[in-house]
Amino acid sequence: MTTPSTHIIVGGGLAGAKAAEALREKGFEGRIVLFGAEDRLPYERPPLSKDYLAGRKTLDEFTVQTAGWYAEHQVELRLGTQVTSVDLAGHSVGLADGGQENYDKLLLATGSSSRRPPIPGADADGVHYLRTIDDASDLLETLKAGATLAIVGAGWIGLEVAAGARGRDLEVVVVETAELPLLGALGREAAEVFARLHRDHGVDLRLRTQVEEITTEDGRATGLRLGDGSTVRADAVLVAVGAKPNVELAQGAGLETGDGGVLVDASLRTSDADVYAVGDIAAAEHPLLGTRIRTEHWANALKQPAVAAAGMLGNPGSYDELPYFFTDQYDLGMEYVGHAPDYQRTVFRGEVDGGEFTVFWLDADDRVLAGMNVNVWEGLDDIKSLVRSRKPVDAGRLADTKVPLPDLV
User: Which end of the chain has fewer surrounding CB within 10 Å, N or C?
Assistant: First the structure.
């Protein structure tokens, strides 16, 4: 009698849950074991900074599947369990409690952790990081009207929390070393939109400013000491200076890493034929864009697992989705699609001052690399078509709202 195959998933977030779903949907009848470090059912993380802190959603509403679903589909949940090692030659994973599980195929979906900068006071009580539901719940307890929240970092999480805190009538100070928020992600022109947005909503935005110390009293954070010697008094501090992909398990196993993550091909297979990686850690070859891309975005965690599952079952595919992310801040809703690290110029279409517009990032040949809709709830597929076409466009027509985007493809 043949022993049924065992496929192990390491990671209890959206990507891990979607991988289990995909394996069953694609007909895998063997054993699935899902390890999650948190003692909770897998859940999505974007709502933590978007909806949960704003009081719009509860944990149940962004939990991927119920406990009953895992039982019905015979997915063994090993929650609150840390996988500490992978033996590629022995096809096994080692656990923190000394246990071991053998696998036929392995999927790594270990996600990211909050970066913890070497700032004095960064580990004091009252200093928050936002990665888990427990982190969000702890932060939520501090968001009382009239309190002051100091945020270190003007990236996506920092700005989303700032918007949520202002919505709860907190005083908010955001400190950022760059000259504009989101400068690295969006470039100067679009970043200026977000700077104005937050200042218009009463955020004290301190740019080109270094945090020298998180000040404390009796072991608890009281605010910030800045590079110019000034101080910020605060009831709580959020440190939001980016995420660090959890690649230690892969590195310890001897898998090839680089470009900030675990190196995978377009089918999401690692340097070991029986191991795949998805989500935040996957530095994947992109068949359309001709480069390796690693992004910490919800869309990858949602869609990559189906491609990885196909490969694990002997039917390798190719993940060619364009990078996508979204944000909601105050009355601004935004969707971004594409990849534009080396863009040459931007083109705006619509009413920037009116708060309804699209931004396009173009290369030197006037090819659209990426596009961002702001409070425009149509046309995203047209932006994708422009990016995928890899053809030059007339920038003047691109900016003209009278010219339908499909006419430019």
Answer: N
Residue 322 lies in a domain: no
Average model confidence (pLDDT) for the chain?
95
Q: What digits encode the pLDDT tens for the residues 140-150?
A: 999 999 999 99
C-alpha–C-alpha distance, residues 153 and 128, integer Å: 12
Starting at the edge strand found earlier in the chain, the sheet holding 231-233 runs 211-217, 220-226, 231-233
Quote the CA–CA distance of 63 and 72 in Å, as a whole number.
Answer: 17
Task: Let me know the angle formed at the C-alpha of 233 by 229 and 239, rounded to the nearest 5 degrees.
Answer: 85
Q: Which residue has tokens 């200026």?
A: 192
Range of the domain at 384: 331-408
Q: How far is CA 115 from the centre of its chain?
A: 13
Three-state secondary-structure class, residue 381: helix
End-of-domain residue from the set 190, 218, 241: 241
Nearest to 315 by CA among 22, 61, 78, 110: 22
| Domain final residue pick, 312, 339, 355 | 312
In the three-class reduction of DSSP (H, G, I as helix; E, B as strand; rest coil), residue 143 is classed as coil
pLDDT tens digit string along 322-337? 999 999 999 999 999 9
Helix axes 298-312, 14-25, angle to 10 degrees: 40
Residue 131 DSSP SS3? coil
What is the reported pTM?
0.95
| Residue 93 maps to a domain | yes
Q: What is the CATH number of the domain that holds 350?
A: 3.30.390.30
